[in-house]
Structure formats: C-alpha cells, structure tokens
Design a protein that fits this description.
Blueprint lengths: L17 H10 L3 E4 L2 E2 L10 H15 L4 H4 E3 L6 E3 L8 H17 L9 H12 L1 H5 L3 H16 L4 E4 L22 E6 L2 E8 L10 E4 L15 E5 L5 E5 L24 E11 L3 E3 L3 H9 L3 H31 L5 H26 L2 E2 L5 E2 L2 H26 L11 H4 L4 H7 L7 H15 L2 H12 L4 H11 L2 H12 L8
Parallel strand pairs: 1-10, 5-8
Antiparallel strand pairs: 1-2, 3-4, 6-7, 7-11, 8-9, 9-12, 10-11, 13-14
Bound molecules: flavin-adenine dinucleotide.
Keywords: FAD, Flavoprotein, Oxidoreductase
Organism: Xanthobacter tagetidis
Protein name: 4-hydroxyphenylacetate 3-hydroxylase
Length: 500
C-alpha cells in the first residue's frame, strides 16, 4: 500500500489553463471502467475527450486576462489570484460576484454541465468559512479542512463528490447492510491515515476531476460511525475505481444530429473504493455522526454549492427560453395567441428561478464570524419546486412545438446524398431558415429534451440536490413559521369589534 497523494504544493501564482488541465488529466493514471474495460486516457477516449475539452475551455475562460475580474479574486492571505468559486464571501456583494463568475462558466456550457469545477469548490469554501464547526470536535479536523481548502484554492483544483450511499437496501442503515463494507466507510486505521472501502454514488465529473470528495449527506445514526467520514482522495489513488454510466457518445455519432450529447456529457460515475489509503491530513470528519450532519447545515457549504447550482440552472432555463423562441420563429407561430400564453408561462417560471437566485442574495445574512450566508429559505424554496418546475417547462416546449423535433431527416447524411438532398432541402426548410438551419435548430432542441442526454438532464434536475421530499424538509426547517404564526396570533387577539 502506497500513498498516491501529491504533497501540498506551493502556492501557484499563475491561473490554470485548459492545456494545463488536459496535460494533468492525461498524466493522471485514474481507474475508469467502461464496458468492462479500462478507459485509459480520458483526453483521447471517444466517450470522454469532448467533455474534457469543455472543462479545459472553462479553465481557459477563467485564465483569459479579459475575464480576470469576473472569474477570479485576489486571495487576501497570498496576494495571488484564485477562482471566485473558492472565495469566502464577507459581503453580499462578494456573493453577487461569485454568482456572476458561476454564470460566466455556466454560459460556456449553456448550463448543461452541472458539476463544473465551481460546484464542489463552493462546498469547500463553505467548510473553510466555518472551521469552528469542525474544531468543536477536535482542532485537527478544522486545520485539515482549511489546509485542504487552501491547497485546492491555490492550485485551482477540480473536485467531484460522491455523498450519497448506494441504493442497495435503503430499508436498513449503513452498518446493518449484509456486508458492512458495502457502503463507503472507514475499514481500519493504519500508520499515517485510514483505509476506506465500499461504494458511493454518484461522482458526476469524476472522470475529469482532480480529487474525489467522499462524504455522506444521508442521515446517519448511532452504529453508522464508520460511514460518518469526510475525506479528499486524488482521483488516481490506488484502489479508487470509477464506473461510468453509459456515455452518450456511444449513440451520438455526429455533432450535427447530437449537438449537445457529443459535447456536454459530464460522465456520472459510481465510485468503488477498494482499500484506499487516505492520509490523516485529508481526513476532515472521522467516525462522527454529529459532525457528518452539521457539515451541511452549520456551515454554508450546502448553500454556496447550491447557489452555484441555481446560477447554472437559471442559465440553462435562459437557453431553454431561447430555444422555444427560435422554434416558434422557425414555425411561424410567434403571433399565435395560445403560443404567446404558453411562452408567457414559460417565461414566468424561468423568471421565478432567476428571481429566487437574486432573493438568496437580497435576503443573505452575515453571521457572528463575518461570513455571508445566502438565504436558506429562498434557496430551498426554489430547489424544492425544481422537480415540478422543470418537467412542466419541458412539457410546455413539447406542447408548443408539436412534431417539429420529430419530423426531421434520419441524419445529416440525408443532406449529403444526391438522391435525398433535393427533397430534404425543399421540404424541411421554414419560411426564414433553409433546411440545414432549421434541422440544426430542431436537433438542438431534441437533444436538450428528448434524447438520452436530454432525459438524463431531467433526472439530474430532479435529483442533483437530493430527492424533493428531502429538499422540502429543508424548506420546512428554514421557513419563518414564527413570524407567520405571530400574525395569526395577533388576528386571534384582536379586540372584539365595537369594544372601543
Ligand atoms: C444525473 C445525476 C447526477 C448526480 N450527481 C451527483 C454527484 O455529482 N454527487 C453526488 O453525491 N450525488 C449525485 N447524484 C445523486 C443524487 O445526489 C441522488 O440521486 C439524490 O441525493 C437522491 O438520492 P437517491 O437517488 O438515492 O434517491 P432516494 O433518496 O432514494 O429517493 C428516490 C425516491 O424514493 C422515494 N423515497 C425514498 N425515501 C423516501 C422517504 N423517506 N420518504 C418519502 N419518499 C421517499 C421518493 O419518491 C424519492 O423521490 C446525482 C444524481 C443524478 C440523477
């Protein structure tokens, strides 16, 4: 057993470029399985290379001097520039700037890569904002999480996370599973650290990320201590295996017919840990059920990560609005009153999501340690309804477009064959678009809504922040019932009419 961790690097002064990212990904010997075989180099593998390029593009965007202010901030302790996702907001304006940086990245992928590097970075900013929560259980845990955060921040790391136990037998707690090492957890202590084993879902972006953040957001109970951990593991650590779900590139054979599937597959991976060594410096929670719970709710990690997620979602909905508009224009339906009503409903829903994002900032609070928290009530309100808003919006687009996304040639090859091209050019056009332009637009919409890629997105928007019954419980815990109840009490205590 050897430690595969890199030593904590010196503070780097330059920003990470796309070329840096791709070179490091290529050099990293991570274990990714696909179709029963090792993937090898994700930067050249047909299932993953385009996704890797998208992440590289994000790093290039942030490193571009033109985007320096938008995407980075000066770290007070070092004077170096770091990605804004690592910034701990001390003012509400800092939170706004973090949102704008996330929006800058989200626009590069049209909001289609949910676990871009700013997602988990924000969780670590949230942990590092409140070391006191960790220190309550031992100063070493606070020191470890702050040091790792600084390392990640100063090296512009991309971290993916797996924080949900597998769905093997949810009727029993983790420690009562038939095999006690089924769910990820600590197996034993060894010199210099711990050994972890077991499975955990679902490291989206794991194929590309530098590190895995392994923790547990599901409620744990006494007896589950071995699973109550929070650790960081380099993706190329010995014994860490990633099982990719079926990549969309398998069926998406060209970027004309599958413009999104071919580019923005962010590779969800089931994680298997087989006797993975984690040095103590990368252990932030150890066999502690209470801290395992408190990390999410007594630090702003969950709110920072999901403020980013909602920024990404609002961007994606803007893209959906644009798609619906362009499709109506193509079909000549724009002026039809029922279509305008449907578009109005779509616009209302998209604006509610955007408004709730701004409300998280407008109702943000600053705690006694000077840390800004986005409003939990505003965050969980929109997240709780996302699993209803999203399918509703997709359904409206289906409603107003009829067969437009289906009545299309079988593939781009129909434009290329002299036998089919004349009919295709003639009948698949619209009043304002030639056939190629119209088909490209409808393919884009279908890839957004109807392909395997599009359907995975619907599942993603439903579950990325936890099942909706859990988010609604979060909402329940954070609504100001006291103020609401007081209103009712005052109404009940009004003096009888005519008593004055
Ligand atoms: C595309 C995609 C990407 C993801 N990416 C990541 C990632 O990067 N990192 C990560 O850690 N996780 C990720 N997840 C996993 C995600 O966090 C989980 O799917 C999510 O937490 C929900 O957990 P679950 O899938 O186990 O569903 P469950 O919690 O089992 O819920 C499924 C359904 O079961 C029912 N149900 C279960 N228990 C109850 C109950 N007690 N009361 C009422 N109803 C109940 C509800 O109908 C619920 O909707 C991703 C998921 C998807 C779909």
């Amino acid at each position: 057993m050897t430690a595969t961790l890199q030593p904590i690097a010196a503070v780097s002064t330059g920003l990470r470029t796309g070329a840096d990212f791709l070179a490091e990904l290529k050099a990293s010997k991570r274990t990714v399985y696909l179709d029963g075989a090792l993937v090898g180099d994700p930067t050249t593998h047909p299932a993953f290379r385009e996704g890797a390029k998208q992440i590289a593009n994000l790093f290039d965007f942030a490193a571009d001097p033109q985007n320096r202010e938008l995407m980075t901030y000066e770290v007070p302790e070092t004077g170096a520039r770091a990605l804004r996702c690592y910034q701990i907001p001390k003012t509400v304006d800092d939170l706004r700037l973090k949102r704008l940086a996330s929006e800058g990245w989200a626009e590069q992928t049209f909001g289609l890569m949910g676990r871009s590097p700013d997602h988990v970075a924000n969780f670590f900013a949230g942990y590092a904002a409140k070391p006191s929560v960790f220190a309550k259980h031992g100063q070493q845990w606070a020191d470890n999480v702050v040091k790792f955060y600084e390392y990640a921040r100063d090296n512009h790391l991309y971290i993916a996370y797996a924080i949900v136990p597998p769905q093997i037998d949810r009727s029993k707690p983790a420690h009562k599973q038939a095999d006690p090492q089924l769910y990820a957890g600590v197996v034993r202590e060894v010199e210099g650290g711990i050994i972890v084993s077991g499975g955990q879902q679902l490291a989206t972006g794991g194929v590309y990320a530098d590190y895995l953040h392994l923790a547990c957001i599901h409620p744990l109970q006494p007896g589950d201590e071995n699973h109550a951990i929070n650790v960081a593991i380099p993706m190329d650590a010995q014994g860490l295996k990633l099982y990719s779900r079926r990549p969309f590139a398998k069926t998406a054979d060209n970027s004309f017919d599958y413009p999104l599937s071919t580019r923005f597959d962010e590779a969800d991976c089931f994680v298997v840990l087989d006797e993975v060594f984690v040095p103590w410096e990368h252990v932030f929670i150890y066999r502690n059920v209470e801290l395992s719970r408190d990390q999410w709710w007594l630090t702003p990690s969950h709110t920072y990560g999901n403020h980013q997620a909602q920024t990404r979602y609002a961007t994606k909905l803007r893209f959906l609005m644009g798609l619906a508009k362009r499709m109506n224009e193509a079909t000549g339906n724009e002026a039809v009153p029922p279509v305008q009503v449907a578009m109005g409903e779509l616009a209302a829903l998209a604006s509610i999501v955007e408004g709730m994002l701004l409300a998280q900032e407008a109702k943000a609070t600053i705690d006694d340690e000077g840390v800004v928290w986005p409003s939990k009530a505003m965050l969980y309100a929109v997240m709780a309804l996302q699993s209803e808003i999203n399918p509703r919006m997709i359904d409206i687009v289906r409603e107003i477009t009829g067969a437009a996304m289906i009545t299309l040639p079988s593939s781009v090859k129909d434009f290329e064959s002299p036998e089919t091209a004349p009919d295709v050019e003639r009948f698949y056009r619209s009043a304002h678009l030639d056939a190629r332009q119209r088909v490209a637009l409808m393919r884009l919409a279908w890839d957004f809504i109807g392909t395997e890629f599009g359907n995975r997105h619907q599942q993603y928007e439903k579950f990325y922040g936890g099942a909706s019954f859990i988010v609604k419980t979060n909402m329940f815990r954070n609504y100001d019932f006291k103020r609401a109840g007081a209103l009712v009490d005052r109404a009940l205590s009004l003096p009888p009419v005519g008593s004055d």
